[in-house]
Amino acid sequence: MEELQSTExxxxxxxxDARKKAYRILKAADEAVQTxxxxxxxxxxxxxxxxxxxxxxxxxTIQRELQARLVLDKxxxxxxxxxxxxxxxxxxxxxxxxxxxxxxLLKGTLQSCVAEVQKTGEPVTGFMVQCRGLTDVEGAQxxxxxxxxxTWALIPADSRLIEEExxxxxxxDAPTVRITxxxxxxxxxxxxxxxxxxxxxxxxxxxLGTEEIPxxxxxxx
Length: 221
Prior knowledge:
alpha+beta, 2 domains, 6 helices
């Protein structure tokens, strides 16, 4: 009887010992799993934070670039409008000038061109001349006044070109040089040299700073 009780007690001790060992093993495993989960969560959160920061910085960069682009686009559109306004205003001015005044301006431009060629030492002779927006009579009168006698020959103008071209132009070609005098060219020179004054006359100096007027950087009145 005592031997049976002793055997049962031994069995209970073995089972209890096995239960404790199993508990320790399971607890250790659970702690290892929990530690792994926490480490994984930390890594995941760190990775997500990095991704958020990266995209936040990228978004801020994109925002800054877009803002800068909008400012540049706004300024470019403004410049284009001013340029169109200047060109339109000059075209209207020349278009409404009396014919005699328009031809006088062309004559002055042509005389300046001929004088520039003479300064270079190039011979002012042998020119074949085309006139646009001018009758043959008007062209001949201007050439006679600006070129030495016998240095040019006028190519007859197409009457349609006279009607289609509102602003007169003279193109004189020689073997080594070309002379071009036109009202359009005169307008472009005015836009280049007197841009600030023209803008102020058209829209006022308070309406736009000179730093935003195309071609006026460093200009002074």
